[in-house]
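Protocol step 4 of 5: obtain the predicted structure for the target chain.
Materials: sequence only (see below). No template structures provided, no constraints applied. The aim of this step is simply to have a reference model before the mutagenesis design in step 5. Sequence pasted as it appears in the construct record:
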Amino acid sequence: MDATGLETLSDSELHERAVRYAVRHGDLGFLWNLLKVIPAAEAATGHHSETTADLTRVSALLSDAITAGEGNLGAALRPVYLEYLREHPDA
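Step 4 output (structure tokens):
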């Protein structure tokens, strides 16, 4: 999908597409990067308490990664998904 087409997708659709592609292709680098940026994205959405918990519990980060395409968090992570999907047009 071209960059213009990606822009029309919802935050949830971008998340699903990027994570599905990364899992299917074993792109642990992207998944690890996603886990690293989730706390900052949560802080940007005003969820400071979740940020602290995420930094101390890997299981919380993994849970967040699964649902990170929804709500304010999905919107905050939108640039991450767009960048990844632009690098992988076959996703």
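Step 4 remarks: DSSP finds six helices and no strands in the chain. The mean pLDDT is 82.
Proceed to step 5.
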